[in-house]
Fold this sequence. Notes:
This protein has helices at 21-29, 57-61, 63-67, 71-87, 110-123, 132-136, 140-149, 164-177, 195-203, 242-247, 276-289, 307-320, 331-334, 341-355, and strands spanning 6-15, 18-19, 36-37, 48-49, 99-104, 155-158, 183-191, 232-240, 254-263, 298-300, 326-328, 357-358, 374-375, 380-381, 386-393, 397-405. The protein is α/β, with parallel strands linked by helices. Strand 10, helix 12 and strand 11 form a beta-alpha-beta unit. The longest helix is centred in the N-terminal third of the chain and has 17 residues, at 71-87.
Amino acid sequence: MPRCDAAVTGVGLVTPAGIGVEENWETVCAPKPAAALDPELEGAPVRMSCRVPGFDPAQRLGARRAHRLDRFVQLALVAAREALADAGLDPASWDGSRVGVVLGCGDGGTATREHAHRVLLEEGARWVSPLVHPMALSNMLAGQLSIEFGARGPSLVVTTACASGATAVGVARDQLSLGRCDIVLTGASEALVTPFQVAGYARTGALSRRHDDPAGASRPFDADRDGFVIGEGAGLLVLERPEHARARGARVRARVVGHGATADAHHVTAPHPEGRGIEAALRAALADAGASPRDVAHVNAHGTGTPLNDLVEAAAVHRVLPHAPLVTSTKGVTGHLLGAAGAVEAVYTVLAVERGLVPPTANLDRPDPRVELDVASVPTRRRIGLALTNSLGFGGQNAVLAVAAA
C-alpha cells in the first residue's frame, strides 16, 4: 500500500482544558491544571477528577437530543461540529458516500449502564429504558456521528484502551490510503468519571491520592508523582486526502504522516519493563513516515504521572531519540482522558506543529532524575517539522502518530 500523508483540515476539542480549540490551547500553554475535588465522587476511594467545565448538553444539542445520548457521545458531537466548521465543510452539501467516521473509545456509555443497573435492582426489569443499548454501546459513538452528518462511508469504533484515540487516527489514515474515503472524521471521546470506574482504577493503584492538593495531583515526569487523575473529553480531527483538500482550497493545519501500532504481549496493566512495545511503535511510526529519528523536534508523551509508566516511556523515547527533542505531557493540565487521550493529544500536537509552540508540562516542580528527557516546563517556541505523539493502553497496546508541518 503506498504511503499516504493525511491532511488535517479541521480540529475540535471539548476537554477539561475548555470547550473549543482556542480555550484549550490557552489553558494548556498557561498551564492551568483542571483537577479538582468532585462532589459526585464523595465516598469514593479517590475524590478528584478533571471534568469539562460548564458543559451544558441541553443548551448545545437541544434538550430532547441530549436526553437520548450518553455523555461520551454528547462531547463528541460538540467537538465534531467545531472540527467540521474549522475545516470549512458543510455536511449538507458533501458526497456522504465518500466520508468515513473512525473514532476511538475505551468503554462507551458507562454512566448510562450504571444508571440502568440501579433501576434494574431497585425497580425491576420493566423499568429499564429501551434506550440503554442505543445510548451505551461503544459503536454508537461512530453511529450517531454518521447519522448526524450523513457520513455513509466506513463507520468504525476502535478500542485499544488508553491508546484508542491515537489508534483511531491511524486507522482513519488507512481508510484514506486505501481510497475508501476522501474525508474521515476521526478522533475519540470518553466520559468515564463515575464512582464505578473510579473504584476500579483506584483498586489497580493507578490514581493519585493527593486530595490535599488536587490541582497539583497530575504531575507527569515529576519525582513526586503518585498516579493519574481521571478525566473526560473529546478530540476530533478532519483528515482528507491531500488532493481532495487542495481541490477545494482547504487550509491544511498539519499532516499525519506515520502511525506505529504494537503490543507488549506482556501484562494486562503494566507496560513491558524495558518498554519494548512502545519503542517498536516509535520506530514503526518513523519508518512509516519515511523519517529518521533526528527529524523529530517534539514529542507529546503519554506521560500519565504514574510511577512506572513515565519511567518506561521515557527510557524508550531516549533510546529511539537520543538527540533529546522537546517533550511535553499535557495530562498535567487535562488529567488522563483514557480512550480519548490519544486523540486530544493528537490535536495538541497538530497545534504545536502549526504554531511552533510546545506547551509546558504542568506540575513539573522536581523532575525525576531518572527521566533522561528534555521535558518542557515553560511554553517554548520551536520550529517543528515533525512531531510524535505516544499512547499506551492496558493490555499492552501502543500507538504512535507522526505529525508533520503542512
